[in-house]
Amino acid sequence: VQLQASGGGSVQPGGTLRLSCTASGRTYVMGWFRQAPGKEREFVAAINMDWGGRISRYAESVKGRFTISGDSAKKMVYLQMNSLKPEDTAVYYCAARSGPSGSYDCWGQGTLVTVSS
After folding, report:
1. What does the pLDDT look like over 24-71, one tens digit per residue?
2. 87 — phi, psi (to 5°)?
3. HSE, side-chain direction, 13 A CA sphere, residue 59
4. CB 89 within 8 A of CB 81
5. To the nearest 5 percent, what fractions of the chain are helix, strand and coil?
6. How many other C-beta atoms can be found within 10 angstroms of the C-beta atom of residue 49?
7. Rounded CA separation 95/111 (Å)
8. Does the structure show a pLDDT above 90 at 4?
9. How far apart are CA 9 and CA 75, in angstroms?
10. Where are the beta strands (DSSP E) in 1-117?
């Protein structure tokens, strides 16, 4: 399964951005990770595609500000990011599990999100 992410950009603090990711095949879970300069990659949000996108989870740092949604028919996942903070600046990666269990085995190219005044 190949993943194609889009939607990054530059925004001022308090602004919004929406990331999109398209999968070339069926996935069971799709999610977003991010890596800030000099830091390790961290989990942001994930959603279960085989449950019609009804089950999602978030990192504590983005709860209440980010919303993940999925469209199983279109094989797409979205990350709506509101109230962005400078600490959200990072390269965001779309990831997926191609099987019903296990770890994320599919990764897209990163898309840069910069939050700065």
Report:
1. 999 999 999 999 999 999 999 999 987 666 789 999 999 999 999 999
2. -75, -5
3. 14
4. no
5. 5, 50, 45
6. 22
7. 12
8. yes
9. 23
10. 3-6, 9-11, 17-23, 29-35, 42-48, 56-58, 66-71, 76-81, 90-97, 106-107, 111-115
